[in-house]
Specification:
Elements lengths: L1 H47 L4 H47 L1 H16 L6 E6 L1 H7 L3 H6 L6 E8 L5 E6 L5 E5 H20 L4 H9 L1
Parallel strand pairs: 1-2
Antiparallel strand pairs: 1-3, 3-4
Helix pairs in contact: 1-2, 1-6, 2-6
Length: 214
């Protein structure tokens, strides 16, 4: 289980580093957006000075609000794209890990053991993707029994669509634990998303930028 925790820690640390990198890019894009917005507002203000004070005030406020909305929309779009990019890079690293048999198979054994030990039942079924099924079929009994000697786990012929990992289920299929990379990613989703957003956009960043335009 220690390798599983190390993998999750590595994924979260990688998300942190990537998020910081993308935040720096986002800040440069934000500065460009702000400069353009200030330029347009300055030109608008000069023209409005020639009009009646009340009309100029109303027009200026409407323009400021419109630019605030536009900037907010652009920043939201940028944030969403950066989050997707960071998560895709993490996914690519997991794909590379699954392809490295020397590193991946010990980790897979840990994932099997962690899932199997969560069941009270002693007879279980394990399902894998096609690559792992073919890898494990010749060595299945000795592979899982090293860490789960007290249970009987059958190798399912059903193939799972996953990058890697395992789904352990009761033989009747009523209880299952998804310990695939996708399953664990889903359980880490909130924490992973929080880390990415915290590093990309510290609290108040967007609102502070909008306030500075007023």
């Amino acid at each position: 289980m220690e390798q599983v925790m190390e993998l999750e820690t590595a994924i979260l640390n990688r998300a942190n580093r990537l998020a910081v990198e993308y935040r720096e890019r986002a800040e440069r894009s934000r500065d460009n957006i702000q400069q353009e917005a200030h330029k347009r507002l300055h030109l608008r203000e000069e023209r409005e000075v020639l009009l009646a004070k009340s009309k100029a005030e109303r027009t200026f406020r409407r323009q400021v609000q419109a630019n605030e909305l536009k900037l907010q929309k652009e920043m939201d779009h940028l944030r969403w794209n950066l989050v997707i990019s960071v998560k895709q890079q993490l996914r690519d690293r997991v794909v590379a890990l699954a392809a490295d048999e020397a590193t991946y198979l010990p980790l897979l054994k840990q994932l099997i053991a962690a899932a199997a030990h969560s069941f009270e039942r002693n007879e279980l079924t394990a399902s894998f993707n096609n690559r792992d099924h073919d890898r494990l079929k010749p060595i299945w009994d000795s592979f899982y029994q090293e860490l789960v000697p007290d249970k009987t786990i059958s190798l399912s012929s059903s193939i799972v669509n996953t990058i890697g990992g395992v789904i352990i289920s009761s033989n009747d299929g009523l209880i299952r634990l998804n310990n695939t990379f996708e399953g664990r990613e889903e359980r880490l989703e909130n924490r992973l998303h929080q880390i990415i957003l915290e590093r990309l956009f510290p609290a108040g960043t967007v609102q502070d930028n909008l306030s500075s335009m007023r």
